Amino acid sequence: MHQRTVAEHLAGLRMAVEAMARHATEAGLDADVPTCPRWTVRKLVAHQGMVHRWARANLLGEECSPPTWNAEGRQVDGIDEMLTGFVTRGTARFARVGPLRFDVRLTDSAPAWSLEVQPDGRVVTTRVTVDTPPEEDSAVVRGPAVAAYLALWNRTAPDAMDDPAGILTDVWRRRARVRWS
Q1: Is residue 115 a contact partner of residue 104, using CB atoms and an 8 Å limit?
Q2: Which residues of 11-43 are buried (b: 16+ CB within 10 A; e: fewer)?
Q3: Domain boundaries of the chain, sorted by first residue
Q4: What pLDDT digit, counting tens, does each position of 36-72 carry?
Q5: Strand pairing partners for 106?
Q6: What is the largest CA-CA distance in the chain?
Q7: Residue 128's pLDDT is what?
Q8: For every residue of the chain, which 3-state class applies, written as one string?
Q9: Do residues 20 and 52 make contact, with C-beta atoms less than 8 angstroms apart?
């Protein structure tokens, strides 16, 4: 396996940023993104910027909070992406955890999600309304959208959320990780 130099990584990053800027300009900020349902180019560019600011801050050991203009709506998109996209893929990450049911409820926004970890490790996520009561055997993780986003993406301590059953500490933090390799 070839180990790239820092200069090679930076050159690749510059090329990717230039390509994204070129394609975003050509498509226009209000264009839909076919591979990301319900996303526009504007949302995708904002998301990429936020991810790279977060990565930079972590490399430098700095704090990184989402900008206020990007807070609630973008966080809800990121929560939905994690709960309906990433954790529902495959069974290995939650093997030997199920059966387990828990809900994610936001205190400052309307979306809510119900997750069920099957005995084989498969995760089934259902979007529910805030008026839908949790199942009787379901734990509930609750907090504001920004705290939920950061906790579910493992970018802050799990105690940022109200989690009496310890789902975030005991299960989520060790198993719900996104790897970009």
Answers
A1: yes
A2: eeeeeeeeeeeeebeeeeeeeebeeeeebbbeb
A3: 6-60, 71-175
A4: 777 888 888 888 887 787 778 778 887 766 555 555 5
A5: 143
A6: 55
A7: 92
A8: CCCCCHHHHHHHHHHHHHHHHHHHHHHCCCCECCCCCCCEHHHHHHHHHHHHHHHHHHHHCCCCCCCHHHCHHHHHHHHHHHHHHHCCCCCHHHCCCCCEEEEEEECCCCCEEEEEECCCCCEEEEEECCCCCCCCCCEEEEECHHHHHHHHCCCCCHHHCECCCCHHHHHHHHHCCCCCC
A9: no
Alpha-carbon dihedral 52, 146, 63, 10, rounded to 10 degrees: 0
Give yes or no for residue 139 having a pLDDT over 90.
yes
pLDDT at 134: 87
* CATH 1.10.10.10, applies to 71-175: no
d(CA 39, CA 130): 23
